[in-house]
Design brief:
The structure is a homotrimer.
Chain A lengths: L11 H16 L12 E6 L4 H13 L3 E5 L13 H8 L5 E6 L4 H7 L5 E6 L5 H15 L5 E6 L6 H10 L5 E6 L8 H9 L5 E4 L2 H4 L5 E4 L10 H7 L7 H4 L7 E3 L20 H19 L5
Parallel strand pairs in A: 1-2, 1-3, 3-4, 5-6, 5-8, 6-7, 8-9
Family (chains A, B, C): Belongs to the aspartate/ornithine carbamoyltransferase superfamily. ATCase family.
Catalytic activity (chains A, B, C): carbamoyl phosphate + L-aspartate = N-carbamoyl-L-aspartate + phosphate + H(+)
EC number (chains A, B, C): 2.1.3.2
């Protein structure tokens, strides 16, 4: 039985097949409308995440399946001291596949050990959030036509941003990838990722402090949120916050085919005036998130249509 | 694309068609059992409301569709500072139609602005609760055979009762409507509704303090709750509370065809001994609430059976 | 209309039919995959219980039906002062059958009084939890081939354990049942059950303090949790806690066909090393819990396949 714990659980070749399937689903959704009839997805969310939970649920419904589960730890047996491993063995009696979010790093790994059903890691602490990464890859591949030979700007909180770390790990497997890391000093990409991932694999990258400096050379811009709390002092925050807000004026500096991604929710780091720009792809990204999860569910359940 | 934000969004003619559809659903539910197969309803409840949420969910299930969503703001991304408008754009990727309840007045209006799917306002603060009004209208029309030429008693908290205000707005569009407003001084219908709606349209009405005085002349009685907290002093509350409790003795004063409605939940304003009276229509009203929401979903999704 | 409020609501003969149906569902689940198409189960959980709720939901989905409801009192109208009886009348408009868990003893009895749909008591305070008992009986009958002529060990908290009390009531209806009651002095089976149930029906039983002393003579062992808080003093707890932990060493003392049951969740009263023992039946028990609930839903809805 196969699980999805880390975005690297799938080889580049397997990912290609998964994304081909997702694009086929996008093109001909009616072909898949009953693929999971009689199957049930359990969504076990030990911490709330509407977006991720609903995305999995939408995926299962689009495949004709059912969904059960819980949306926060309060309403789960976790409070009675049951181990995640036992919960999964129980859930294996109730469902055919499960998506689990847990505040503890490594929880998904423990969960799948005795699970009788495939486990999708829907986020384990600050560790992994592989379905977001798969959605990001599918979005990029669908919009640009390929995943290699690209200059990708990563902007915002590169220090704590789990999404960005996962995406880097996933993208360096493709040839010709270059990064422009756009962040304040305080929120730079951690040294261990720079040395262990970028340097070791000879991935070219540069670090800049202003979004405007990076925009002209990007094929793709991946935005994330810069939280005020992350800054050491108010002064720095006030000085720099506008550097990381994407607006219509800044978009004029960007190439015509530079798509903008964002894992959402956004607060104010992308101005709403950008939403109508054809390069704004963050809502499409949410849609691709459903397609890739549909493909993932089919693949893990070994259902061929 | 069409939404339901206010009960007046539909013209009288459109309402007639909607209610005809609801009555056809009541008569031949099996005809509609698969009308929404493959469609998904999102229930976005930023504040809990079991009754309204479950009524929409039941409606969608009766049409063969699916349901996803959240039942309180805690388990939603609202806490991450996402705008309602963004949430709706995201939900448009996950569902085909949505029902939203939000504590803020006007939230539904904002939500539908960028929504890619029809929005049903399931209550926005003290503002509107249009599907309750539609359910009320359908119940009256189904039981009495018409919506015009009636004397309607509105009893209880007429000051803060959103349901009653909406119902007045909706009923004054029909000819020959007269109101008897039954409430304590403290909870009288607000002046702006009396002047802007009743007086302006020359709708006859009288105000009385005792339910007993009104009952003999009513074609229909709409009960609401009188909350103790609304009174200025305990003495007034004790003196008057029984005036607004409907019991078997009071029902003897009412005409034989005077149906009793109540939006529910009731606490003690209708004695349980009234439940067996054939004129007690408040549980039927809950049932009509499902039929009208089925009709509404079909209409907003432009599905013809 | 029929409800399930107490495990004794069904005669021994009716239980046999129910368990036959459950075993047929186990053998040929596909036969039942659409038995409840178009039907809706309401899960009304006034206190959270993931396991019981999901088990009912899984049962309904396996029968091709839909599910709606709430998983805690917070998100219900209970907070508005509505009576359980009114809630059930409302829910009767939304669903075809309901499973209700409520913290108050007797709530289910009140609920079904005016209900328009069958009510399954999914636990009412410390009173009854009949579907657990039905699951226990089905598990025993499926594994042992019969429910009579057996020596059954009940281990742990026999004083407060609702599950154990219900199981005793249910098992004494079969001939040749003997009990070994294994518990610390503080947590012994209450006198009123010993006198009113065991003594009155001449059911042989013995009381022992150590699990090891009981194991060799058992046909079946039913484990429950011993909570530290139940002990009068820390000393007693430390002295005795290991007596009630089942591990691989203790399993060596048990007969080869002595199955181990546990209502779950377990904390540490069964060591995980026992999980691989073929006599460990507690996860099978969870699976049988789904089959018996499927049989129950079909029976209460009077659906024949």
């Amino acid at each position: 039985m196969r699980h999805l714990i880390s975005p690297l659980d799938f080889s580049v070749g397997e990912l290609d097949k998964l994304m081909d399937l997702a694009n086929d689903i996008e093109a001909t959704p009616e072909k898949y409308a009953h693929a999971c009839a009689g199957k049930t997805l359990a969504t076990l969310f030990y911490e709330p995440s509407t977006r991720t939970r609903l995305s999995h649920e939408a995926a299962m419904y689009n495949l004709g399946g059912n969904v059960l589960g819980f949306s926060s730890a309060n309403s789960s047996s976790a409070t009675k001291g049951e181990s995640v491993s036992d919960t999964l063995r129980m859930i294996s009696c109730y469902a055919d596949i499960c998506a689990m979010r847990h505040p503890k790093e490594g929880a998904a790994t423990v969960a799948c050990k005795h699970s009788g059903i495939p486990v999708i890691n829907a986020g384990d602490g600050g560790h992994q959030h592989p379905t977001q990464t798969l959605a990001d890859l599918l979005t990029i591949r669908s919009l640009k036509g390929h995943l290699d030979n690209m200059t990708i700007g990563l902007c915002g909180d590169l220090k704590f941003g789990r999404t960005v770390h996962s995406l880097i790990h996933a993208l360096v497997r493709y040839p010709g990838i270059r990064f422009v890391l756009i962040s304040p000093e305080e929120l730079k990409l951690p040294g261990y990722i720079r040395s262990d991932v970028l340097d070791k694999k000879n991935i070219p990258y540069e670090e800049v402090e202003r979004l405007e400096d990076a925009l002209p050379k990007l094929d793709l811009l991946y935005m994330t949120r810069v939280q005020k709390e992350r800054f050491f002092n108010e002064e720095d925050y006030v000085r720099m916050k506008d550097f990381y807000i994407l607006d219509a004026a800044k978009m004029k500096l960007a190439p015509e085919d530079m798509y903008v991604l964002h894992p959402l929710p956004r607060v104010n780091e992308i101005s709403v005036e950008v939403d109508d720009d054809p390069r704004a792809a963050y809502f499409k990204q949410a849609q691709y998130g459903v397609y890739i999860r549909m493909a993932l569910i089919l693949t893990l359940l070994e259902i061929e249509v």
